Amino acid sequence: MSMNKSETEVFLSIPDIQKRYSISRASVYNLINKQAFPSPIKVLPGLSRFKLSDIEQWENKVWGK
Q1: Which of 2, 20, 39, 55 is most buried, judged by most C-beta within 10 A?
Q2: Which residues contact 13 (CB under 8 A, 6 or more apart)?
Q3: How far apart are CA 4 and CA 35, in angstroms?
Q4: 17, burial (CB in 10 Å: exposed 0-12, middle 13-18, buried 19+)
Q5: Closest by alpha carbon to 37, among 26, 28, 47?
Q6: Where are the strands (E) in 1-65, listed by range?
Q7: Nearest to 51 by CA among 13, 1, 19
Q8: CA–CA distances in Å: residue 38 to residues 4, 6, 18, 53
Q9: Residue 50: CA atoms inside 13 Å, Cβ hemisphere, count?
């Protein structure tokens, strides 16, 4: 899917993910390691973020939203 000029990708940090699902940092990484959660992407060296669109796709797949 291509993005319009008016659409901008939103990125979430680990603390954002923790708040969204009420889980610990370790739980986030455990899910990623089990390939049960979308992997973050490198935005800059030493800085990774989760694409909100990936998270929403995962939610739809897992919870049928």
Answers
A1: 55
A2: 49, 50
A3: 30
A4: buried
A5: 28
A6: 11-12, 41-44, 47-51
A7: 13
A8: 24, 25, 14, 10
A9: 21
Asked if 11 and 51 touch (Cβ cutoff 8 Å), the reply is yes
The candidate with the shortest Cα–Cα distance to 40, out of 16, 14, 58, is 14
pLDDT at 37: 96
Distance CA 49, CA 25 (A): 13
pLDDT exceeds cutoff 60 at 57: yes
Distance CA(57)–CA(38), nearest Å, equals 9
22's tokens: 């009420």
Q: Which tens digit of pLDDT belongs to each residue from 24-49?
A: 999 999 999 999 999 999 999 999 99
- Provide the percentage of residues in the chain whose pLDDT is more than 90: 83
